[in-house]
Amino acid sequence: MKSHKSKFVCLLLLLALFVSGCSRITPSAPKDNSSLDTTTPTPDSGTEDITDTPEDTGEPATNVPIPSINPDDNAVQAPTDGLDDSDVTSPVSGNGTVSGTPTGTPSVTPSSDSSTKDNDSYEARATELVSDMTLAEKVGQMFFVRLRKDSGRKDVTDYHLGGYILFGDDFKNETGTGIKKLLNSYQEASSIPLLIGVDEEGGTVNRLSKYPAFRSTPFESPMDLYKNGGFEAIQADTKEKAELLLGLGINVNLAPVGDVSTNSSDFIYKRSFGKDAKATANYVRTVVLEMKQDKIGSVLKHFPGYGSNVDTHTGIATDTRKYDQFVKNDFLPFQAGIEAGADSILVSHNIVTSMDKDHPASLSPDVHDIIRDTLGFEGVIMTDDLSMDAIKDYTSNEKAAVQAIKAGNDLLIASDFDTQIPAVLDALKKGTLNEERIDASVTRILVWKLKLGILQ
Fold it and tell me: What EC number(s) does this enzyme carry (predicted)?
């Protein structure tokens, strides 16, 4: 009997232990649902695209969402991180060429505005305005020209200019009040509001912040900003630039620089983000999204990617890299900018043999077909300055303007507009250019002005 009692007690103890264990693993219902955290997790912001050194751990800015891109897994990545500038080498380049327009390139979905209805209304309004313009007014809209202060008001009315670009000398000995008054006088003289642009990239290219009258210190380079504060610093800097420029009456910043450069000996290096293609793409995306939010015009430059080429201000540069290198590397920042809603793309004067061995990119129909058909860009395409030696060594002022339009440019950055505008009008008269081609470009330009809110 004693034995049976002992067994019974053991069984009771085992049963108690079993029930206790079950209570530990069985979840109980919450007593108060209001205490539950129902916040949706924040999506990944794409920081994995950037390979950081331990000292270089900046996170993408969180105030503006930064969607990640999915570049080809085989994208060329320069070995930048963990190396000194002297140890960094350029991305791999090739010497092969491809005849004609390259094919087989992955396409990118064109960026769209938040409202299709708005886009349609902009298009309709721009088309309406174009239908009432004279041919001279249309051609004038296609010129984004270097300001001549002495004749600024007269040039606007004589040539019906699309906009002015200001350089460092234009801000010398000026004040914020003086510049604002001057730019307002040009806008008042123009029947169609002007694009007013400046290259305020930060670092080596600052047109106005180098003067204490406009900012106590010049804007820092993208590299220094990122090193000291990551993408939050990039975003804050972009916002500050937008507020400063818009406050003066400047509605376009010719930025960001999307060229991929990791070699300190490259001409473009100090103006670039200084990191590989994926990192540069995240930089471009951050800047474009902030500029779009602030309603200041953005310009992606210098398509198709400057690489290690020499300065085209001083002569012709020839790029012999294979087309595949651009697809997997140099195009990525431009794709990111397009997806983020960039307003315009500026095309360099480099001769890129894998795309067109006979023409500078800015004058090449094949290069412009890549922008439109392969990358799916629907905004404004502009040339780099047609007064640069790379163009002067290639062709005459008059021919350059006509060739630029035939190639597919909408806006021509020009210093010699007083000879180039008559040359374009003459080409239209002779039938070398047709009015439909002009109308398409002017419509895009006016859509841009409508989106910026400078045109009603």
Answer: 3.2.1.52
Cis peptide before 304 (omega within 30 of 0): yes
Residue 266 is classified by DSSP as S
Which helix (H) or strand (E) element contains residue 18? Answer: helix 2-25
Q: How confident is the model at residue 309 (pLDDT cuts 50, 70, 90)?
A: low
412 within domain boundaries: yes
Residue 336 lies inside a defined structural domain of this protein: yes
Q: Give the Cα separation of 206 and 220 in Å (integer).
A: 9
Number of domains into which the chain is organized: 1
212 belongs to a structural domain? yes
Tell me the residue range of the domain where 276 lies.
135-452
Distance from C-alpha of 395 to C-alpha of 390, rounded to nearest angstrom: 9
Q: What is the CATH number of the domain that holds 263?
A: 3.20.20.300
Is 50 inside any structural domain?
Answer: no
Q: Which of 66-70, 71-75, 266-270, 401-405 has the lowest mean pLDDT?
A: 71-75
Tokens 């999915």, residue located? 70
